Amino acid sequence: MVTRMDSSATVSPSLAERFQRLLADLGSRPVAVVGHARPDGDCIGSQVALARVLRARGHAVVCANADAVPRRLAFIVGDLTFAPAAALTGEPAAIFVDCADHLRAGEKLRARLPAPLGNIDHHLSNEGFAQHNLIDTRASATCEILARLFLDAGLPVDAATAQALYAGIVTDTGQFRFQSTTRETFLLAAELVARGARPAEIGQELYEQESPGRMELLRRFLGSFERCGGGRICIGTLPLGIFAETGTSAEDTEGLVDYARGIEGVEIGVLIEERPDGFKASLRAKDPALRLDQVAGLFGGGGHACAAGLSLRGPAAADFRSRLETALTERLQRRDADRRTS
Amino acid sequence: MVTRMDSSATVSPSLAERFQRLLADLGSRPVAVVGHARPDGDCIGSQVALARVLRARGHAVVCANADAVPRRLAFIVGDLTFAPAAALTGEPAAIFVDCADHLRAGEKLRARLPAPLGNIDHHLSNEGFAQHNLIDTRASATCEILARLFLDAGLPVDAATAQALYAGIVTDTGQFRFQSTTRETFLLAAELVARGARPAEIGQELYEQESPGRMELLRRFLGSFERCGGGRICIGTLPLGIFAETGTSAEDTEGLVDYARGIEGVEIGVLIEERPDGFKASLRAKDPALRLDQVAGLFGGGGHACAAGLSLRGPAAADFRSRLETALTERLQRRDADRRTS
Fold first, then answer.
1. A175 contacts B208? CB cut-off 8 A
2. Which one of A165, A240, B237, B260 has the minimum C-beta count within 10 Å?
3. Looking at CA atoms only, how far is residue B36 from chain A in angstroms?
4. Bridge partners of A80?
5. Pairwise CA distance, residues B97 & B36, whole Å
């Protein structure tokens, strides 16, 4: 059963109730808190926060991801176990956080997990794949949903949990500047600071510990920009081999695409990462009417209206770039037509 | 008389009282709201907000700066008059905002202004140069002080004023991530959003309307990085002629220095802008104990503990780079020694 909440002012009664039912169904089982592949701040923050709260309630917990915790997010993990492919002992219940769909956990990991008991998320494209689906597409971050659920239920949000929740919100809002940032987001940030989140420390860990290689990656990404769609689309490309050349890895691409979107006159920014057998692409729009989650969906991806991603390989990747340019240009034209008629 | 307020929780009674006395002394005179040369978001935001509130009280107002409003900040100005060197008619009272000292207004402008009646600021190095000095060095921004003063006094903070105050806070906190960001900063942001500030719009105007030239300036700045002080100082240089080559201007340097500080292992980031007759330098530290305002002071500059600046020309600029490296390295060593003994 899927419930979409349209108020972010406080957690809605039905979402709170659904959370209580999820907790009740957990019983005393061990829990796998599952995040998505290539985890970002909101994913790791959500896993850490939920795992800490469940552990405080007496559950054995393990966090499971197909890929490792990015270096820059290690500071919020503390003594929790993140197990990329660990054997999950007992008969754990699986709660997915920040996963737009079941596949986002990664195929290998998914095959080892029980059927999803919980699905807590804020992605537009989440269709509800678990027994208990707690989806609020207006929340700025999955961490925002969790913070409200915990605070409303009077669950313990200690300093480390507040720090993890804050880290998720700050990354998924682009430091409080994406469309999803509301008055309530700031009130929640204030509450998390009161409970021990440290904005300056988090800011330094997330944004001021860049490796020299990442700076070189940025420099080369900036140099790769090409405009299309009448100048309204800016595409930057990371060619094969660039990670080895700059001493970086895929996790160092986080945030780069924002530079492509951030140019005057550009409506859609794109990062294309070339891979041996295909492409990964990140799409960012300034206007949510562009519904990039739908564009990504054409290529098997998904996400949010202004921030979506996809991954293609093998034969499906043929002519990818021209097909993407066509799809994005058509999307811009359709939005323009809608504006004229409305 | 100088008062430093050590609480940012709410405006202190004595600061509020001082503000009432300043308003009383204004009478019905026209007011010049004076900002500093090379104005940033907190400067323009403070000028716009104070000018709007004073205009609503019936004052004729003009905003005065030695340099023009940066393009990216034009969206908060509305119908106010900014007059780089306009004749100030009547017998205006001058209120300085966000000016660490009287000179920061610029020599030419200062010569045309009456003696400062008010001085509202948050810089550590502000020694109080006006008849009424309202200084709170713990505030994250001069806009934070003004917002508190206006809200506490029940003065009208409409949507445009809220937008200007928010823009100042977001820029001076580095998007809510510098040391000065507190729980109260977030509560204030929430209140400003409730009164009409639009975080996503402000974020797009400030950070997502970059010119292609500015991206090229960033790319070249990143390529100029050199480490010294045992790797703990990172200096990037903008050589003479780079603005012409990239189609940019001095205002496009805002924020670049944060990339130099933001590298792992770097404690102090520096941007040096070469000028025909000298240098301008921006200094940024991760640790407030480094007191960069004092280092900048050695070269006639000033600012905050973690963010300071200076400008040198003529004979005083000789050997600038080596003297700066020496001063910064000594400062790091002294901080290390203090840590060992404390």
1. no
2. A240
3. 27
4. none
5. 8
